[in-house]
Amino acid sequence: xxxxxxxxxxxxxxSDKTGHVRTPDYLKGKTGWIESVRGExxxxxxxxxxxxxxxxxxxxxxxxxxxxxxxDYEGPADDYLYADVYAHWLERYEGETV
Amino acid sequence: xxxxxxxxxxxxxxxxxxQHEVEDWERLADAVNAALGGKxxxxxDELRRAIESLENYKELGYYERWTAATELLLIEKGILTRxxxxxxxxxxxxxxxxx
Lengths: 98, 99
Description:
Chain A is mainly β. Chain A contains two helices and five strands, in the order ββαβαββ. Chain A has a single domain (9-92), classed as SH3 type barrels (Roll), CATH 2.30.30.
């Protein structure tokens, strides 16, 4: 599992995993950046089914430009959205930065 | 969308922001959940998963969801049976004279 540093460009995996998933649908496939590291926590996707949730996984505060999330966004270009996303939902994004 | 709860960004219409007094049964629902958590019988993640699985999610209020989900989890874990819960509910309804 890849780990990240603040400032890294990341993309939220466009996974269609079902069950108890904490990553909201509207972020899947979207690109942003690591704002900070929240710490390491047990995986809620497993805890939700009575499993141990171990090993603990890094959780990141990830920043997104609102304009990158909503096709019809009309607010200021520097409106951001921050969401907590686990490492296993993220991949390094090497594409063109916006 | 992974479930009925995952609706961020979808057209939602107006939000009902009105408040209501917390009712006794709601305090009790909260207390039962705290006790189950404290005894290691239920985790927040399990409760969330059970809430998301409720077929009548949209018709239920906040603590109604908690209560219905807790019932599912207690049955799933073999702590209570549906029959025991139904019997007890019927007993309380009779005692309190509620339909």
